[in-house]
Design goal:
alpha/beta, Leucine-rich repeat, LRR (right-handed beta-alpha superhelix), Phosphorylase Kinase, domain 1, 4 domains, seven-stranded mixed β-sheet, 17 helices, globular
């Protein structure tokens, strides 16, 4: 009898354990985490040359701590592996990750068919498989993804027809199937933008982007705050309004629009501090102003992490216990309307890379533009350069090298792998953040685009920090990716010297700015005087010489002589530096520097010093200093 009771008790216990497991929805009745199984299957079919999936362990019970995996409420919600040099094929087991909201595999070399099991992912909002080598047809099952907002399959080798089932998805914002081998008729999708250029059998060999877009970007003409029955589908509201206006007389239309305008103005004047539509856009969370105000203790000064030209950054404690950095933008009107802001925020949020600061969410209303980021526990490079841990510098030589390489990777992604490319315009130690493993994370990379949306490549207002701004940007106001290369070169010098370019030159024994001083010591062969004294001679002298050479190549006055960030990346990894340096010294890359501003006079026929640009520039420079953990 006792034995029977013991067996019964054990059976009851197992039933309770099983019941608990199935309520968590991640363990099968046999105790196997199906999300772990699915992710490991995905890993097994991919070739991972840089071991970015190294900690994906089949024996783990919780994949939420894995790299490139993001969880929401304990379930895998984002699979973000863009630009990781992955090849191989995509496992059909991806269809078992039923809580996925975003799949971001762009800019790899993944081949084979797109698994039709992706059609099971009912919660999926963003699917980006662009710039890979996928073949076969676009699965018709994608038409079952009723929550899909963004579908990017461009720049692959897909064939066959674009499935008519895509016309069933009502909330699409973007569909891009350009540059494939597709044929046949196109479905009537509801997307605001539908790109099909580069499919010769659909567009013809000489088709332009304009006559080969099934749906062009559509202006939103109604007041921005008009509520929609379907959250986020503003274009649907536009169609409804147009149909309504067409159905009635012009007089009634005037009355209707006037009423809407008065209602809109009323809302603007009411200083509304809440958002009606608390929804996710793409894979971003839309926060209410109320919860962000509460998280920062009403934006109390004690929670300020940094200040700058773009706004103030606060440390925030959300109700779920997580720490965030809350960036409250100064001028919420610069970025245009609320719809424009949301669109650009979503676009920037798709730029996912392990060395870029991930945008977690945002708040947008008539009076506020706020960005929410993960909190970086180790602060910025600038704030850690002089810190010590148990008597040793927090950033030793190996960590400084790792920061340089990680920052370069992030900039390569922004310049050469993002679509559209993004120019940072303020690369410096204060904007390079450090995660819990001291991995470099490039911050603020989207703000220039957000606050200068009309033309992010050329501007008349010079933004940045004195000592980091490229000469051509300082003198003409024109910026490009080579402007960022210059800033990266100054960052390398900050890492070597342990000093801020902004503060450099204020003491009597240091004449001019950091760049001029470094050039002088390099010519004199006195590199030992450059190195941060806190390192106590614990550095590699050969590596020091190499990094100084890379920095000097990056900071050449003529932007056309500077290498691209992908070339910088290779040089930091030991490939091509000797040849590039020899060419720069032999005169192969010598040419006149960019022109000086009108009225600027130089004592030499050639401008020799960076300080000449700073001292004589007639443009107003807005110095930005955003240090501290963000």
């Amino acid at each position: 009898m006792v034995g029977a009771r013991l067996v019964f008790w054990r059976l009851g216990f197992l039933v309770l354990v099983w019941f608990h497991d199935v309520t968590t929805a991640t363990l099968s009745p046999t105790g196997v985490n199906y999300e772990v199984t699915a992710l490991v299957a995905i890993k097994s079919e991919l070739n991972d040359p840089y071991n970015v999936l190294e900690n994906w362990d089949v024996n783990s019970v919780d994949p939420c701590s894995w790299r490139m995996v993001t969880c929401t409420d304990g379930y895998v919600s984002t699979l973000g592996l863009p630009s990781q040099s992955l090849s191989g094929t995509l496992s059909p087991r991806i269809g078992n990750l039923t809580y996925l909201q975003s799949v971001l595999l762009q800019n790899n070399a993944i081949s084979g068919p797109i698994p039709d099991t992706i059609g099971r992912l009912e919660k999926l909002q963003t699917l980006d498989l662009s710039n890979n080598s996928f073949t076969g047809e676009i699965p018709a099952s994608l038409g079952e993804l009723n929550n899909l907002n963004y579908l990017r399959l461009n720049n692959n080798s897909l064939s066959g027809t674009c499935p008519q089932s895509l016309s069933k998805i009502e909330g699409l914002t973007l569909v891009d199937i350009s540059y494939n081998n597709l044929s046949g008729s196109l479905p009537k999708v509801s997307a605001r933008t539908f790109k099909v250029i580069g499919n010769a059998l659909i567009c013809g060999l000489k088709a332009s982007a304009n006559n080969c877009s099934a749906v062009l970007p559509e202006p939103l003409t109604l007041p921005q705050d008009v509520p929609s029955d379907q959250s986020g589908t503003h274009s649907n509201g536009h169609h409804v309004a147009v149909a309504f206006a067409a159905s009635f007389s012009a007089a009634f239309f005037v009355i209707f629009t006037s009423g809407m305008f008065l209602w809109w103005r009323y809302r603007r004047n009411k200083q509304i501090f809440f958002d009606v539509n608390e929804v996710s856009l793409g894979h971003l969370k839309r926060y209410t102003f109320k919860e962000l105000r509460s998280a920062t203790s009403h934006f109390h000064s004690k929670n300020i992490l940094g200040r700058g030209g773009y706004g103030i950054v606060y440390k925030g404690h959300l109700s779920d216990g997580s720490l965030v950095a809350v960036k409250r933008l100064k001028d919420c009107n610069i970025a245009g309307g609320e719809v424009q802001f949301q669109t650009e925020v979503e676009t920037i949020s798709l730029a996912l890379h392990r060395n870029l600061l991930r945008l977690r969410g945002f708040c947008s209303s008539n009076n506020e533009r706020i960005l929410v980021y993960p909190y970086m526990p180790n602060g910025s490079v600038a704030s850690r350069l002089k810190d010590h841990i148990r008597g040793e510098p927090a950033l030793d030589w190996s960590r400084r090298k790792k920061i340089a390489v990680g920052t370069a990777r992030g900039l390569v992604y922004l310049h050469e792998q993002c679509d559209p490319k993004i120019i940072h315009r303020d690369v410096k130690a204060a904007n390079i953040l450090l995660d819990e493993d001291f991995e470099a994370v490039v911050g603020d990379f989207g703000l220039a685009k957000l606050l200068d949306h009309r033309d992010s490549h050329v501007t008349t207002a010079v933004r940045g920090t004195v000592g980091h701004i490229a000469p051509e940007y300082l003198s003409t106001g024109q910026s490009s990716e080579k402007t960022d290369v210059f800033g990266f070169g100054i960052l390398l010098l900050e890492l070597i010297t342990g000093q801020k370019a902004l503060d450099f030159g204020r003491s009597s024994h240091q004449k001019g700015v950091m760049l001029d001083w470094v050039k002088k010591l390099h010519q004199e062969g006195k590199l030992k005087q450059l190195i941060d004294k806190d390192l106590n001679d614990k550095y590699d002298r050969v590596e020091l010489e190499e990094i100084v050479q890379v920095a000097l190549l990056c900071t050449q006055f003529n932007p056309s002589n500077r290498p691209k960030m992908s070339e910088v990346m290779k040089m930091l990894e030991g490939d091509g530096l000797a040849d590039r340096w020899e060419a720069s010294q032999s005169g192969g890359a010598k040419s006149l520097p960019p022109p000086l501003p009108s009225g600027m006079v130089s004592s030499s026929p050639r401008v020799r010093y960076y300080s000449d640009y700073i001292q004589e520039s007639s443009l107003v420079v807005e110095a930005i200093e955003l240090s501290g953990p963000r």
